[in-house]
Design a protein that fits this description.
The protein is of the alpha+beta class. The protein has helices spanning about 5-15, 20-25, 30-35, 40-45, 50-65, 65-80, 100-105, 115-125, 130-145, 150-170, 175-200, 210-220, 245-255, 260-265, 285-290, 295-305, 340-355, 385-390, 405-410, 415-430, 440-450, 470-475, 480-490, 495-505, and strands at about 230, 260, 265-270, 275-280, 310, 320, 355, 365-370, 380, 400. Among the domains are: about 5-65; about 100-170; about 260-355, Gyrase A, domain 2 (2-Layer Sandwich); about 465-515, DNA polymerase, domain 1 (Orthogonal Bundle), CATH 1.10.150.390.
C-alpha cells in the first residue's frame, strides 16, 4: 500500500493528527477519503466512535461550506460584477484536420519517395511495425550511401537488420532504466559544464542555453530566465485574404502583441520649476506601433485619471500632465495650491511604467522570414504570454510555442507540458553538440509529470515525495524524515535502489530481481 502524500497533507491542513492522516491516506485519494463514514474511519484508524465522528465532521465541514460563508461569497460576486474587469474570453475550438496534422508531424519525412514506399509496404508485409520516421531515417541512410534503388532482397535485408537492432535496443524486464537515464544525462552534463567555462565571454544569442537551461527544466522553474515564444499565423485572415505571407499584416499583429510603454513612443521631460511633466511624442515610433497621439492621450487620461493638456486636439505632439489636476477647472486653483515635488516624481515613475498597448510580459516581438519553402512569416518574442497571444485573431494556436513549461501546463495541460520538457531538453542538448537517447529524456519527463503536475527533481518535488523513508532521508534533511517516520510508525519496504544500497543488500533489479535455487536430485 502506498500513502498518498497530497491526501495526507490535505488532512493535516484540516487539523487532523498526523498519525490518523497517514492511515487514512494509505492508498486513498481525497475523493475516496471524504466519502468515508465515521464507522469506517474508526476501523481504519483504530479509534473510538466519538473521535471518528469528530474527524468525519471536520472533513464534512471542509466539503460543505456554511450558509454564512455562502452568503459572503455571493456578496463578493455581486461586487465583482460592478467592477470594470474584462470578461474572460472562451475561444472556439479549432477544427481538427487529421491529414493536415499528420502532414505537419511528418514534415521532415518524404513519404512520396520511391524507397520509402518500398520499405513501408515490405514492413507491412513482413508484419514488422516501423514508424514513418524510422522508415524516413532508413531512406536518408540509403540515399547517403549513393544508392538510388533497392532490390527486393536488399530491402528485406534492411528491414530485418532494422528489426534486429530495434529488438536488441529494447529495455529488458527489471532493467534499472532510472540509473541508466541518470548516467546517460549526467555524463554529457559534465561535458556541458566544461564547455560552458571554455566558451565564457563569447558573444552569443541572449537565450539561456546549455547547463543553466537543463537546470531550469529539471528544477521546474515557474518562469525561465529568458522566456521566448514563436508565434505562427494562419494562412488566411477572417476576410479570406493571405495573412502569414503578408508582411504588413504580420507586422501589425507583432505591434499589437509587443508591450508598448510611454518610453517607447515619447520623450519625457520633467519641469521641476513649473511642476508638470511634458511628453514629446515620437511620430515615427507611433506610426510603427500603429498608434495616434489622440489615442495615447486618451489612454493616459483613463489610466492616470488626470487631465491631459495637448498642443493640438486632433493631432497632438506634446502632452502636458500636472499632478492632482483631474479636470480642466482645477487649473484655476493651481497657483494657490501647486503640486509637491514628491507627487511630481511619483507621477513620473508611474508614467514610465505605464503599459499603453500590447501584452504584459512580451517585451519584444520581431517578425522573422519569409521561409524559403512557403514564403511564410512568423513572430519571435522576448517574453511569453501564451494564453493572451492565443486570443489574437489570426494566430495559429496549434503551432504557436513557448519555452515556458509552466505556461504550457496551465493553458494546454499536463500532456503538452510533458512533450515540452522532452522538446526543450532535446534542443538544449543538441545545441551543445551532445547526443542523448530520446528514451532517457522520456523517462525524465514521465517522472516529472506522472502525478498530474510538473514537479521538480529535488526535495520539493520528486525526491522529497518518494515513498521510501531511507530514499527521502538520503537526499536532504535526513533527521527530519527519520523522526517523522518514527513518530507515525511508517514502514519502508526496501523496493528501490537507494534504500537497498544503504542497508547493504542486493537491489531488486536486473540480476537481483530473481532468486536462483538448486535442488539436487535424490540418488
Amino acid at each position: 500500500m502506498v500513502v498518498k502524500s497530497a491526501t495526507k497533507k490535505k488532512l493535516m491542513d484540516l487539523g487532523i493528527a498526523e498519525e490518523y492522516s497517514h492511515k487514512l491516506a494509505d492508498d486513498r485519494k481525497w475523493d475516496d477519503v471524504k466519502i468515508l463514514t465515521s464507522g469506517q474511519i474508526a476501523q481504519i484508524c483504530g479509534i473510538d466512535s466519538g473521535s471518528a465522528q469528530e474527524i468525519h465532521r471536520v472533513m464534512e465541514t471542509s466539503t460543505k461550506p456554511s450558509r454564512a460563508a455562502a452568503q459572503a461569497e455571493k456578496t463578493i460576486v455581486r461586487r465583482r460584477a460592478v467592477s470594470r474587469r474584462r470578461k474572460k474570453k472562451s475561444l472556439p475550438l479549432q477544427d481538427y484536420d487529421p491529414d493536415a496534422k499528420m502532414k505537419q508531424i511528418l514534415r521532415d519525412v518524404d513519404t512520396d519517395d520511391e524507397i520509402y514506399q518500398q520499405l513501408r509496404e515490405l514492413s507491412i508485409g513482413m508484419n514488422i511495425n516501423l514508424t514513418p520516421r524510422m522508415i524516413g531515417d532508413l531512406v536518408d541512410g540509403v540515399r547517403a550511401r549513393g544508392i538510388k534503388k533497392l532490390t527486393k532482397p536488399k530491402a528485406r535485408k534492411v528491414i530485418e537488420s532494422t528489426w534486429s537492432a530495434l529488438s536488441s535496443a529494447r529495455a529488458d524486464p527489471h532493467e534499472a532504466v532510472g540509473i541508466t537515464t541518470a548516467q546517460s544525462i549526467g555524463e554529457p552534463g559534465t561535458q556541458m559544464t566544461m564547455r560552458t567555462f571554455h566558451y565564457a565571454g563569447v558573444a552569443t544569442v541572449n537565450v539561456t542555453q546549455g547547463l543553466p537551461r537543463v537546470i531550469e527544466i529539471v528544477d521546474a522553474r515557474k518562469v525561465p530566465k529568458t522566456p521566448t515564444m514563436l508565434i505562427y499565423l494562419e494562412e488566411l485572415d477572417s476576410k479570406g485574404k493571405p495573412l502569414n505571407t503578408n508582411e504588413k499584416a504580420v507586422l501589425k499583429i507583432a505591434a499589437g502583441v509587443e508591450m508598448t510603454t510611454t518610453l517607447d513612443i515619447a520623450k519625457i521631460d520633467v519641469e521641476i520649476t513649473q511642476r508638470h511633466i511634458s511628453l514629446h511624442l515620437i511620430v515615427s515610433n507611433l506610426r510603427r506601433k500603429g498608434m495616434t497621439g489622440a489615442e495615447v492621450r486618451d489612454k493616459l487620461s483613463r489610466a492616470l485619471r488626470l487631465h491631459i493638456q495637448a498642443d493640438n486636439e486632433d493631432r497632438p505632439k506634446v502632452l502636458k500632465i500636472i499632478p492632482g489636476v483631474t479636470k480642466e477647472e482645477d487649473l484655476a486653483s493651481l497657483a494657490n495650491d501647486p503640486p509637491t515635488y514628491t507627487a511630481l516624481l511619483q507621477l513620473e515613475d508611474k508614467i514610465k511604467k505605464l503599459r499603453l498597448k500590447g501584452l504584459p510580459d512580451v517585451v519584444r516581438a520581431n517578425v522573422q522570414g519569409p521561409s524559403r519553402e512557403t514564403g511564410e512569416y512568423y513572430i519571435s518574442t522576448i517574453g511569453s504570454n501564451l494564453a493572451k497571444v492565443s486570443e489574437f485573431a489570426g494566430v495559429d494556436r496549434s503551432r504557436t510555442y513557448t519555452n515556458n513549461i509552466t505556461e504550457i501546463n496551465g493553458y494546454l495541460g499536463i500532456e503538452a507540458a510533458r512533450q515540452a520538457i522532452i522538446n526543450e531538453m532535446s534542443d538544449t542538448l543538441e545545441g551543445a553538440g551532445l547526443e542523448v537517447d530520446i528514451r532517457h529524456l522520456l523517462t525524465v519527463s514521465d517522472v516529472m509529470t506522472s502525478e498530474g503536475a510538473v514537479r521538480a527533481i529535488g526535495r520539493h518535488g520528486v525526491s522529497g515525495t518518494k515513498h521510501s523513508i531511507l530514499a527521502r532521508s538520503a537526499f536532504e534533511v535526513t533527521v527530519t524524515h527519520l523522526l517523522q517516520a518514527g513518530v507515525i510508525g511508517e514502514r519502508d519496504e526496501l523496493r528501490g535502489v537507494t534504500e537497498n544500497i544503504i542497508v547493504g543488500q542486493p537491489v531488486a533489479l536486473g540480476t537481483g530481481s530473481v532468486d536462483l535455487f538448486y535442488i539436487p536430485e535424490n540418488v
